Structure prediction request, 857 residues.
Amino acid sequence: MTASTHSNSGAASKKDGGFLSSLRGFFGSQEGILLIVIIVLMVAVGTSNPRFLSQTNLKDVFAANAYIAVAALGVSMVIISGNIDISSGALVGVLITLSGNLAVGLADAGWPLMLVNIIAWVAPLIGGMVIGAVNGFFVAYLRIPAIVVTLGMFSILKGGLILVAGGNTIYNLPEGYTIAQQDWLGIPSTIYFMVILTIVVFLWLRYSATGRSIYAVGGNAEAARLSGINTRRVIMITFILNGLMVGICSLMLATQFNQIQATAPPGLEMFVITAAVVGGVSILGGTGTVLGSTLAAILVKTIGSAMVFINVSPYWLKAVQGTLILVTVLVDVLRRRRQSRQ
Amino acid sequence: MTAILELESISKQFPGVKALNDVRFESQAGEVHALLGENGAGKSTLIKVISGVHKPDTGTMKIEGMPVHFDNPRQAQLQGIATIYQELSLYPELTVAENIFMGHGMRRRMGPFSVLDWKAMNEKSLELLTSLNIHDLDPHRKVGALTVGNRQRVEIAKALSLNARVLIMDEPTAALTEADVVRLFEIVRLLKQRGVSIIYISHRLQEVFDLADRVTVLRDGHYVDTKPVSETSEDDLIRMMVGRTINDLFPKLPSEVTHEVLEVRDLCCKPLTKNVTMTVRAGEIVGLAGLVGSGRSELAQVVFGITPAESGQVLIEGKPVQIKSPAQAMELGVAYVPEDRGTQGLVRQMKIRENVSMAVLSTLMKGIFVDNNAENDLADKTIKQLSIRAYSREQVVNKLSGGNQQKVVVGKWLASKPKLLIMDEPTRGVDVGAKAEIHRLISELAQQGLGILMISSELPEILGMSDRILVMREGEIVAEYSRAEATQENIAAAMMSDAVRNMNNQRKLSESSKV
Prediction:
């Protein structure tokens, strides 16, 4: 499943070449299965309630939740490298507050609007990378397990945020700030973010030397190190890039509405990790693609929206999400066991 | 005498290799029965069958004449079979007594409850240790703070607490100091007197002659023979273990030995590299022999920059260099095929192509991306050159056999175009056919002008492949032989001569002190 996606979703190997067999390869992969499930789900729910497939609703499902897919890109890289990040929810809270306060503060101080907006957009990206670098430093150089480091970071950020912002709402955002509300060529800007970033990260992981090293470090850190790969640097890079993705995710969230709630979106980190794992990123590291994590993020949100349309309480969503994780991990573990027995 | 343990026509198949093929084994009460064989001969599999870790595919096992089937190690323990593995399986954070009674704690009643009786367990532990003539071990001490020798004694006490009738010891002396070996032998003899049947695995033939009553030899998963030790000789045992003329297995090609690729002078890195001075020349295979724990792998790791040297000089092709990391060693033309390909050599879930290119990926770039064509060509070339049996370069290495996996690791390092190739146990866990192929490959590489430093625990491999042989003992190079001078005897003697001599002295001392 995940191991084969590594090749199949792109050009299939020459040996089993041919268009049909590469198609078969794709639909046998985690990504292919997710795509099929999403389509089947949409058709099924659409048949029972056609309004589900209306343009406005679909736009909502994709556009309003693209930020999860973007954050999942980052955490997928971290999980592939054999680590984990559970601090992203709290970090998002801090970064949207940072961005909003900067925007309002600088605008009030009379700075030119264009400059204010650019600073307010770039600040969360830089902030995310800085926190990512701190996490990465603790994991890579001080060799503290990632779950401990990011759990600590989660508490620090969350506590700090409550102290500083106190859960306030930030109003009076400057004009032009809310880019996530914009449509370009009739398509919401957040969808551009999601699609373009997914493609870029996918290609980078697959075809760059550093991207390949992330898989190698996650698969067997010791072998990677003995092959001359600077494993610490690789881990550092994944955490910084994860911070960047969380920063972009924050930017998308902060600029979505005309006001910003200065709190951490509850359970966001779990949504994000769910997307990565359901998307086929092995929790043990070394395998998976971000195509999968983005499709999984879409799937989870499609399910959430579908529940509303077929009159199932959305409170079930958590249970569905949990079931998805367990089933996916179970399938992954069974596949590995079968492989090692062969 | 009656047989405590009897195994008949035991077979066990693993993916790609028949580990045991119609093997029989039998041991009696009060006997030390040595189990011998080369690496990969099936010794480990056999003891795992006896101790309930593996279930045999076919065959019967009897204990005191009664057929038994073990689904797990626990059932074997309850039948009185205890195993002391090479890597001791103790809990460092628990005390001696806690370790001894792990899984079968003594209990007492406290009202309606049955609770663990620590007082009784501590007393019983002391009693067990005393019965083994061990008087310097407090049951309350944490095992993590003990020496290796003391930990092993705890393992033995643990086995006795289970009333072991059969005690399996897998290379018990591999990590011991000489004094500890002496004490171990005393304990083994004590147990023997009490009627325990001991299955003793060791690569040190001398120990077999010192300690064992009978010896069974396995080869390539087959039973070869069982003989009383008094009716055999070292040569006889080696012939049974190797079982074929060495020339077939060790195709040595003529090669032109030229300039020095590696020279190290007074290399030190505590604790196991002490003042090492040696050279490896282009076109030459230098065999590095020594017991496990003599510092061979450690020396390789110093040269490869995994544990950088503390003092001393390293010269690559005559130029002094400082090697501080594997990446740096690679740049200087040093390659290292590690001992354990599973944990150090391969990324198992990656493809052959990705593993082969791993060390040289930065040289296969086209702009910011990896050049697919160059990478594919490299993988195809490697598969062809090393005759790796796989259906395609896209095959995940996890699904290859041990020998082919090893070739992938070698291929990865050849891709870096090294001048010096260090191979640590290059044929460990590889079946005989693949072994010969890897040997041919090593020989060909030397012929092409590579300098090769080959670490091996198999003397026939060292003798068969090397142009020159260095022997290490306790972190020092203690002997050097040319191919012509080297014999099994003089290498073995250099590997352990002090150990054996000291052991005998101490034994005499302890025996005379008892009188």
